What does this fold into?
Amino acid sequence: MASLARILRKRWILYILLCLPMAYVVVPVLQSDTKYFADPAKYLLDYVGLAATWLFVVVLSITPLRRISPKSALVNTLAYHRRQIGVSVFIYAALHFLIYYAYTGSWAEFVKDWDKLFILSGIAGFVLLLVLAITSNNRSVRALGSKNWKRVHRLAYLIMFLLIYHQAAQEKTGFRETAQVFAPLLILQTWRLGLYARKTLRAKNATTDSPNS
Ligand code: HEM
It folds into this structure.
């Protein structure tokens, strides 16, 4: 595991891995997949949206994984690349948005769709991802101050709920796929909350038990 983590720590390997979902797009073409040829734009829209969502799940899993396994070389490598993975979420989401915009054909047609709640949740998620991408550099950390920067980046949890809704609301067969994508993240975040609650309770008990209190 440690040697895999050492290989993955190389930036150029990370960039190749982050581009892989794009390269995979050619597979249905090579396999003459009928689902792709029925409506290529729709296929690409869904595919790129899913790639953005999976990468988002990876980024949000890093902090709870670090709490659970702080010494894991693989988890620490993921943490080392967190910023690059986060920016790639935004790039895939921007591609998803552009494909959708091209699919609708015009601004007027695009605006017509805004009465659909799942479209609004996608737009809100995208705008918030843009805020996180713009403020993901060291200059923004310095300008905002570490505390405020952390506050801004907590928007990621709001994005999580918007994306869960965005994906689940379109599933014609229930929430199966959305559950498969987000369940590991929700389990990890609940675990992290549990650890935090236990730590706070212990600290509170230690203060009440102390003879000086
Ligand atoms: C700019 C705002 C957005 C718009 C207008 C938009 C629009 C759409 C549309 C029209 C679909 C296809 C619905 C269908 O199958 O009929 C879709 C699917 C999807 N979108 Fe978005 N979206 C936006 C933002 C996002 C963002 C920010 C993400 C994730 C980071 C995302 C992830 C997804 C996913 C995962 C699917 C479903 C793919 C599947 O299950 O096959 N979308 N979106």
